[in-house]
Design goal:
Blueprint: H1 2-29, E1 39-46, E2 57-60, E3 63-73, E4 80-87, E5 98-103, E6 110-115, E7 128-129, E8 131-133, H2 138-150, H3 156-174
Parallel strand pairs: 1-7, 2-6, 5-8
Antiparallel strand pairs: 1-4, 2-3, 3-4, 5-6
Helix pairs in contact: 2-3
Length: 179
């Protein structure tokens, strides 16, 4: 009889542990919306989104201002159209802002970074962001570097290393505020 009660108690604690893991997983993944308030949707098109996924953060100056809602292929341009939900409290973002795909760390997850422009017109629900910068794919940079090793050694190597250095500077300066 005592053995049966002990088994039930152990089973209860195992179930409690599994429930705690689920709660921590959902909290860490931030499945919730940007905030509890309303959002508005804008769209941006990219030639290459790399590993960007729906649910990725959208930041400005290191502050989370939105989430990637959906990613689709545009059948006319064959670019990736990214639907972005921005929190309504950030409704003064200039229309000529630049949206970049950035990486948290060297090989971390990808997110969108918004660099505000100088226009007096602001993004509204349904706006299309025209200034975008696609993801920097590390494999492409390595391929360029290796190709430059077998070809003429004048400026190709310097260009590939310069692009890599620029990308690392951009990523390191954008990543500290991202979680």
């Amino acid at each position: 009889m005592q053995s049966r009660a002990l088994e039930i108690l152990v089973g209860f604690f195992v179930c409690l542990g599994v429930a705690a893991v689920f709660v921590l997983t959902f909290r860490a993944a931030s499945i919730d919306n940007v905030g509890k308030g309303p959002t508005y949707r804008v769209t941006a098109s990219f030639d290459n989104i790399g590993g960007l996924k729906a649910g990725a953060a959208v930041t400005m100056a290191g502050v989370k201002i939105g989430r990637v809602r959906e990613i689709q292929i545009n059948q006319k341009t064959f670019q990736a159209d990214v639907g972005i939900d921005l929190s309504q409290q950030f409704n003064k973002i200039p229309e000529d802002s630049n949206v970049k795909i950035l990486t948290a760390g060297l090989l971390g997850e990808q997110y969108l970074g918004v660099e505000p422009g100088g226009s007096d017109d602001v993004l509204k629900d349904g706006s299309v962001v025209t200034l975008t910068q696609s993801a920097l794919v590390l494999e492409n940079l390595i391929g360029q570097f290796l190709a430059s090793q077998s070809g003429p050694k004048d400026t190709a190597l310097a260009d590939a290393i310069g692009k890599l250095a620029d990308s690392l500077k951009t990523k390191d300066s954008a990543a500290p505020g991202v979680k």
